[in-house]
Amino acid sequence: MFSFFKKKPTTPPTPEVPALPPLPTAPADSAAATMPATVPPPSTAELPAGEPTAQPSAFGWLRNPFGKAPAPAPGVAEPSVPLRPADPTTTPGHGPGVAAEPSAPAPAWASPSAPAPVPVHAPAPMAVTTAPATVPAASPGRSGWLDRLKNGLRKTGTSIATVFTGTQISEALYEELEEALLMADTGVKATQHLLDDLRRRVKESKATEPAAVKALLADALADLLRPLEKPLEIGRHTPTVIMVAGVNGAGKTTSIGKLTKHLATEGAAVLLAAADTFRAAAREQLGVWADRNTVEIVSQDGGDPAAVSFDAVSAGKARGKDVVLVDTAGRLPTQLHLMQELQKIKRVITKADGTAPHEVLLVIDGNTGQNALAQVRAFDDALQLTGLIVTKLDGTAKGGVLAAIAQERPIPVYFIGVGEKLEDLETFSAREFAQALLA
Length: 439
Description:
Number of strands: 8
Order of helices and strands: HHHHHEHEHEHEHEHEHEEH
Distance between the termini: 112 Å
Largest sheet: 8 strands, mixed
Strand order of the largest sheet: 3-2-4-1-5-6-7-8
Helix content: 25-40%
């Protein structure tokens, strides 16, 4: 009889699946996730009272006012402790630490006989030596900055350094040094002060070689510039309102953008105020920096600069910003009515915040030499300056103007710039500047 049903094939026996090897234990960098709960956190009792914590940034003036856990001081090993959960609002590399990824749970098919990971015990807590906040040399990357500073000041320092190539100390050496200092726009008063101080040091040390006189001149210059060395404090006021002024072409807006980048990197919430409403594309230029640094900006198309500044300060208070940077229009100190507009901006800012502006900075171009000193006088008389930013020192042979400023108007120099790159704006150190100038 014919059948339409086919005989089903015999199913072969299922081969036995070998057990998979046990999962590997967590790597060394995530071993902290498996630490026992009894490991104590590092003690802070040994930290010196009242001392600022060391910062990973080269900006030693920033004294950790934003609640971010400080990094250990340079040269001190970081204790291995359980990592805190990552803060989604913290900038990578500057927050309290990146949380280790939790180990994945073992799947159902894993061998139950797999050995448990061995917990790694952290070493005993150690004291962390805190470096002073005003010592830039201890900051990471500062050595690279010193090299750029020496290269930038080479045009200024070459004429001064050639004076000490002779073989003896004579009156002709002091005359040549006087001429070199004046050519570097050190100014008559500062030059005379340096020469008198240098003669005294040479007499006391009984120096006989020109090379020794060069080192003594570096010491005299560092002592003269030391009153200009002061850190910019951020965080005492919320928000800290910084008003920035300067003549056209001094690099004011660019310096604001660089400062914004450093502040944002440190975790500060920055708000920019585009109060330069007259210069073409000024708002657009500041807006590019705001987009690049992912910070907010307050601007108006052709609005009144004082009104923009008022709105920005009010918005900074309402939004809980840490810093409000006000970019004002470039002004020549010889134009009285324009200087009066800057005074109006300052008065209106005070109406928005009774304690503001907390800092009034002037950006000066190092190429202008003695003219920069005249700008400092005029803007200080009009606005009562609290600090300076000196730019473009890499393209001038007139870097000695800082000595003239220290002699006549010792206003703190918060930052100096020796290039267009972001890292070319750094905090000012009198000793570093003097050594780089006479290198």
